[in-house]
Amino acid sequence: MTTAISRRTFSAAALALATPLAFAQGEGNIKVGLLVIDSGPFATYAGLIEEGARTAIDMLNAQGGALGRKFELVVQSHAGTPASAIAAATKLARQSGVTMITGQTLSSHSLALVPKLADLNVLLIDMYAQSNDLMTTSCAPNYFRVNTPDALTTRMMEDYVKSTGAKSWNLISADYASGHSFAKGFGDLVTGMGEPVNQSLFAPVGTTDFGSYISQLSKPADGLVVTLFMSDGQSFAKQQKQFGLFDKYKVVIGNGFATDFQLDAHGDAVLGVVNSLSWTPELPGARNAEYVKEFVVRNKRRPFYTDADTMAAFETYRAGVVKAGSTDPAKVRKALEGLMIPTIFGDVQMRAADHQLIRQHGMAQVVKGENGKNRFVMKVLKSGPEIYPPPSPECKVS
């Protein structure tokens, strides 16, 4: 359901951006592209990704857009492979005329897109991919990221892992770039603490029968880490419950597993799981509170962390366009480097050295809410400057 958005929405940020340049006569809408996946396990949430993006665009347009022009969202679906993501991005850039792309880009998709961005003359402002390679060997001038990478998840888990008292670990991860990146980072973390990884399993995306994996994970260990997403995560949660797998562990940690838009589907199968989580609707700040309020009015549900990351991607792009006074990707890219950006996360910086938004990340536990539904309680939350690693010398963005 769509409702009118008050002109007072995000008033402080709107005033901050209301320079004479920002309200100059424009030249038509500013087209921005959204990639969504229409097949496979990630297709389940394509509609939610689009819903979050349309809400973000409407909210920013209610502020006046940028440079006196409105944003126009162009949605392009694809089959969920790196090759299809490239084809969809190419269509957005060359046929639809978008100047920025965001959306459902798995790490393997973003890694495939990065070498194509300059030729397509488009910016990718990632709100989805988590691979550390995108801030080291695979970073690029036209690539920016607003969501949290695997390195932050590992960093957030370090103190929590120490507090659990677990002395050995099993891991099950999705068999693609982000799953392998996280598994390596977590493995390095615990082995550096003198704790062994007994099992590190990788399940292909789209797995429906996790019986053999559950059998292997039943071998003794104190802690279990699950990096399975979307419908894969739902299948695993349901099947592990049948075998009482989580009951065999002192602690179960989720990485993108027990996420907010899966809690109802997971039910009691994920109670007690401690999940890395970068954002909840309860985070402080007037801008965040206004965003949550408007989102609920429009969509009759609370926003998820992916909705918040989508909003941040468009807030970031808008800020770059306003500073650049142009939608030209090269000019916006230059404007974004080192820019302090007003977002629903607060005023956060786009680091010039590797194009990473230096924002918060945390750990949250799944508990039963007063209404009988699962919800998160944030156990720890740290600011970006506390937890981001320094820029990698392998990253070359200029």
Largest sheet: 7 strands, mixed
Average pLDDT for all residues? 91
* CATH-level-2 architecture of the largest domain: 3-Layer(aba) Sandwich
Q: Helix-strand pattern, N to C? A: HEHEHEHHEEHEHEHEHEHEHHHEEEEEH
Distance between the termini: 44 Å
Number of helices: 14
Portion of residues in beta strands equals 15-25%
What is the name of the CATH topology of the largest domain?
Rossmann fold
Q: Radius of gyration over alpha carbons? A: 21 Å
* CATH class wording of the largest domain: Alpha Beta
Strand order of the largest sheet: 7-6-8-9-10-14-15
Uncertain ranges? 1-9, 11-16, 18-25
CATH superfamily of the largest domain: Response regulator
Overall 3D form: globular
Task: Produce a short descriptive summary.
The protein is of the alpha/beta class and 398 residues long.
